Each structure stands twice: as structure tokens, then as C-alpha cells.
Amino acid sequence: MITLYGASLSPYVRKTLVALAIKNLPFEQIQQMPFAKDAEYQKISPLGKIPALKDGDFTISDSAVICQYLDDSYPELALYPSDPQDKARARWYEELGDSQIGEYASGIFFQRFMRPFAFKQDPDEELVEKLINKKLPPILDYLETEVPAQGFMFGEQLMIADIALCSSFFNAGYAGYEVDSTLWPGVSAFIARVKSHPAVAPLLAAEAKTLGL
Amino acid sequence: MITLYGASLSPYVRKTLVALAIKNLPFEQIQQMPFAKDAEYQKISPLGKIPALKDGDFTISDSAVICQYLDDSYPELALYPSDPQDKARARWYEELGDSQIGEYASGIFFQRFMRPFAFKQDPDEELVEKLINKKLPPILDYLETEVPAQGFMFGEQLMIADIALCSSFFNAGYAGYEVDSTLWPGVSAFIARVKSHPAVAPLLAAEAKTLGL
């Protein structure tokens, strides 16, 4: 039996939930918050980060490591392409989504959503402006040259690269940020396609319900 | 023909050099500096990061993506274990080495070595103290429970997990920091074993020569 630890609103937990949905794997989820000073949870996730996964007696953390593990252990309904060069490109997109896009787009979410609603603090609007106007544009310019006109990064099947590239933009959406479709029409349409995919849409609907949107 | 782009002193470039050494793959190296505003290099590494790899017409960046790619494309002399759970643990150690240990141990190197010698700036000693006394100890406590009494993380063969966990500590060593062998004897001995491995020692000797040490 698989147990996933992590709060659904985390872009990285969401990515792992999509992976489990693509693979049709049964699992239970524990809505673990990150960095909990919880000795039991640290046995599962040594740095206290989310998501973490328990599969029988085996535990592992980090969303990219978990998704690779799921693909290696349950190869049906692939999360990564099989050709080594495509697989490397997929991992590169995933890394881009998890690192820079995570930092910038989830940064907007943290400032404009988490700070006022969860921590009763004002957002750092100077930082948000920098993220929106300086940090994200070069990444979006690059992505505009990479996204396909239809379907997903590696064809008709949604894979990890697709959800990794989009997940933090969904969070930024909760903070009122959308990728400008006049400047980056390809990226904007790509994000919309991922959003409406049957492995993604029900998760976003559940989040909206939790958030009272 | 394989070309590796990146300055040898980067912990991530060094990791990739060790991967190429383990696999006995012929390659040429271009001593590329990171974040160069160089349109040609951005075609190879879209964010300007190092290392990047060119293999025939195929280009890819990010050290973890490159090492996986090398293992997928040239499977002889494995860089990762084959069992899915061991492979996941190896990727987790690599991620730990590339992210937290990279930030903290390479942070010491950046402050105490790069700032004075390359940028003619004073180090931020308050930050260095925090890295040494607050940030690294919990990671070292955890690693002390993980490292084997002899050999490497997955047996007698040096693999990516081993070099990823140690590479930033080698950089910290250039800044005078060594893991305290009275507090973390297992980690200290593990780093020494990796340092003297035949795929690693010649690289460190070449670095020392470049640095005039």
C-alpha cells in the first residue's frame, strides 16, 4: 500500500498526486505540512520536506525522486519517455519546473496568498514585482520556444515534464497571476491544456473546494 | 564525441567529471564560467548554468540530468544502482548533495574563497558561522547514520551518490573547512575514502595545481 505525505496545495505534492493519477495507483494521503518538527515524520522525510512516499516498508522523499521511483517500480503508464535523450529533456523540464519556476511562480503565491491568509502578514510587493517582471519573463521566453502547438511536451500523453512545468503556475493563479497570453500565447495555451487534463482537473477542483473558491 | 562545458572547480562540474571518469568515456572539456551572457552558450544551457553536455548533436544541462543521461546512454560501469529502491535512495542522496549540502558547504567556499580571491570582497563571516554551526550539523548528524563503515553508499563501487555527497565538501576544504572527525567520524572517513578514489584523486590533484596549492 502506498501512502503519500504532503499538503495538496504544495506544487510538488500536486505533481506527485498527478503521477499517481496517471498510473492509476491506489494510495492514501496524509495532509502533512512541511518542516514539521516531528521525529516520526523525519524518519520518513529526513529534512521534513513534502512530499514523502511510503511504499510498504520503503520510504523516500523529494518529488522528482518519488516520481522516478514510481516509474521504475510501476512501469505501466509511463511518467517519463523511454528514449535516453527524450528522458534527459523530460528531467531537465522537471528540474526547471521544480527549481526556477517553483521559486518564482510559487514565490508569487507565497507572498500574495500564504502571507496574508495563513500568516496575517503583508506581501513583499517589491519582490512580487521583481518575480513577475524580471525573473519569470526570460523563463517564459524560453518556454515559448519549447512548448508544442498541441498536446504535451512528449506527444499526446501527459507526463511528469508537463505537470512539473505547470504546477507552480497553478499556485500563482491562486494569487491572481496568469501568464500573459498576448506575450506568451504558446505557454498560456499549454498551461490551459494541462489544467483541463483528466489527471489534473479533479485535483484542482478539490483544491478550489478546500479554498472555498 | 562528448563535450563537457564548465569550470572544473564547480562542485557540479566535478561530479560530472567523476561520472565520465567512472565510465571511461572520452570527452573534451571547455572551461565555461556560469551565467555567461553568451547567446551561443545559452543554446546549450538555456539558463547559462554549468555543467552542460554536448553529445553529438544533443545538448543538455544540469549535473543530475547529465549523469542520468550518461547512465541511460552508456549503461556499462553504472553510476546508479539498478534496484528501484536503491536507485531512489541514490537519487535522494544526490539531491541532498546538490541542494542543501551544495548551498551550505559551497556557501562556505564562496564566502571564504571566491569572494576574497576572485571578487576582492570580504566574506560574510556571520553567514559562514551560521552555515558551519547551524545549517550543516543536522545534515551531518543525518549522514552519520547513513554512511557505511567501509566502501561506498552502495557497496564497493564509487557511484554518483558518493561524489554528489562529497563534492561540495571538497570546495569547503579549499576555504579551510573540514568535517569534524570527532563529532562525525563516519562522514569524515567516508569523505576521505571518496577523495582518494582513483576516479576522484587525479581531478583534485589537477585542481590543486591550478590553484597553486
From TrEMBL, chains A, B:
Q: What is this protein called?
A: GST-like protein YibF
Residue limits of the GST C-terminal domain?
83-213
Q: Which residues form the GST N-terminal domain?
A: 1-78
